[in-house]
Write a structure and sequence with these properties.
Blueprint lengths: L2 E3 L15 H6 L1 H16 L14 H8 L7 E5 L6 H10 L8 E5 L4 H10 L5 E6 L6 H17 L8 E6 L4 H9 L2 E5 L12 H10 L3 H14 L9 H14 L4 E6 L5 H15 L1 E3 L5 E4 L2 E4 L10 H6 L4 E10 L14 H4 L6 H18 L4 E8 L2 H22 L7 H13 L6 H14 L1
Parallel strand pairs: 2-3, 2-4, 4-5, 5-6, 7-10, 7-11, 11-12
Antiparallel strand pairs: 1-12, 8-9
Helix pairs in contact: 2-15, 4-8, 4-11, 9-15, 10-15, 11-15, 16-17
């Protein structure tokens, strides 16, 4: 079971400026209100991610079982929620399962990046999974059109068997393309937003392709959902972590640092950054009043960033909350040989496991931050496997929505992202954006 160690988020003699436990109790009514709003949204079928542990994965498994064995690579074309979860799952579990198939994610329109991906793959043995709910995401559609053109020229007879499209169930441009071309298709559910969609076809298809046990992911998510049904915050890890982060925001802690002590979990810090930033960073509250709320998520990697960021974290501005992701048992490990027993400078390492050193450095950073009166907590994975990854995903999705309710904002929309999309459409000459294009021309004149 995933553990949430929150001691260093609460007041103690080591952390005299931290949130007192009594304040958690003071917010019982606010937490009850947030919980009731979440339950109402669930009944209204708004928070579809809650129901994903019961998701029917048989269409995915049926498709995977029928794939020609010579396909050994999948390239996901997506951005944001259509990409980050795919990469995070693969990065976390590719070594755990010693996966035989490979996953690459094309999530930027940098032409050099596309060239690098194309240079790494064999077009004859690669499937392409295009993921966009609307079917109009500029970055994804640009990649789709380039790669489809390449595949048509390389495999004119069967290019349609090499492209999968994951999009809205009924609407949108790509659903029409699917009907016209006969592509294999999967679904982005109506009631699951992109950044909450990793446990839908969006993330499960690519995971199943490479050999990840997607049923175990959902079983872990179900276990965490059950733990997070409790009203007592101290028994509900998602509610407690969300409440404490909310309280620290009001104490001036405007930055949330997630620092995995595991390279395998590093991409989950990226996944968290989108989830936390896009959900909570809002100009208006639910009543339309300007509030400008949110907490900036930052990622770091232990032990690497002990040599780059921890100096700032311990002695710089005290405006951050820290979350360490740690692992108790590693599938692979190495014993450090005692090559220089006569030299005290290095002989203390001899005979120790590499995992011992890694986790000692994790604890050392925790101690250093605590001594510097910087609030911090641990999310502890007994092992990196599908079950515990599923727990982590569900905990943070619940935590994010709960924190949004405490902030009285809509954690499901992203109006700031939409403004950027509209400007991109105007700049690229999309029809229907003449007014925005004229405004941009005025803006550019003012810059000259």
């Amino acid at each position: 079971m995933l553990r949430f160690e929150y001691r260093n988020l609460l007041h103690s003699k080591d952390l005299p400026t931290a949130i007192p436990a009594s304040k958690v109790q003071d917010f019982r009514y606010a937490c009850m209100q947030a919980h009731e709003e979440i339950q109402a949204d669930r009944k209204a079928n708004v928070l579809g991610f809650y129901e994903l542990p019961e998701y029917d994965v048989s269409p995915i498994l049926d498709y995977i079982s029928g794939i020609d064995p010579h396909f050994d690579t999948m390239v996901v074309l997506g951005i944001g929620g259509s990409a980050l979860g795919n990469r995070a799952l693969y990065s976390a579990l590719k070594t755990e399962r010693e996966l035989k198939r490979r996953l690459l994610v094309y999530d930027n329109v940098d032409p050099i990046y596309l060239h690098e991906i194309l240079s790494q793959i064999d077009l004859d043995t690669t499937l392409f999974n295009v993921i966009t709910k609307s079917g109009t995401t500029a970055e994804t559609m640009a990649g789709y059109m380039i790669l489809t053109d390449i595949l048509k020229k390389r495999h004119p007879e069967d290019y349609t068997k090499r492209i999968i499209i994951t999009t809205d169930r009924e609407k949108g441009f790509l659903r029409q393309v699917i009907q016209n071309e006969g592509y294999q298709s999967f679904v982005v559910p109506d009631n699951v937003g992109g950044r909450f969609s990793v446990l839908t076809d969006v993330g499960l298809l690519s995971s199943a392709f490479v050999g990840i046990n997607i049923a175990e992911l959902l079983r872990g998510a179900a276990s965490m959902r059950q733990r997070c049904e409790k009203l007592d915050s101290f028994e509900n890890p998602a509610y407690l972590n969300g409440l404490l982060h909310y309280l620290y925001m009001h104490e001036g802690k405007k930055i949330s640092v997630m620092m995995p002590y595991s390279n395998s979990l590093y991409d989950f810090a990226d996944w968290y950054r989108q989830l936390w930033a896009e959900s909570l960073g809002k100009r208006h509250n639910s009543k339309g009043r300007e509030v400008f709320v949110g907490q900036t998520p930052v990622k770091a990697l232990g032990t690497t960033d002990q040599h780059s960021q921890v100096q700032l974290y311990t002695e710089g501005p005290n405006d951050k909350v820290f979350t360490f992701l740690g692992v108790e048992n590693f599938k692979h490990d190495y014993v450090i040989p005692n090559l220089h027993p006569e030299r005290g400078e290095v002989s203390y390492l001899g005979g120790k496991k590499l995992s011992e050193l890694l986790n000692a450095e994790w604890l050392a950073t925790e101690i250093a931050l605590t001594k510097a009166h910087r609030p911090n907590c641990n999310i502890v994975f007994p092992a990196i496997d599908e079950f515990h990854i599923g727990e982590f995903i569900m905990m943070y999705e619940i935590q994010t929505v709960f924190t949004g309710k405490l902030l009285h904002i809509d954690p499901l929309d992203q109006p700031g992202v939409e403004a950027g999309k509209i400007a991109t459409y105007a700049l690229m000459g999309k029809a229907g954006y003449d007014k925005e294009r004229a405004e941009i021309q005025e803006y550019l004149k003012a810059k000259d």
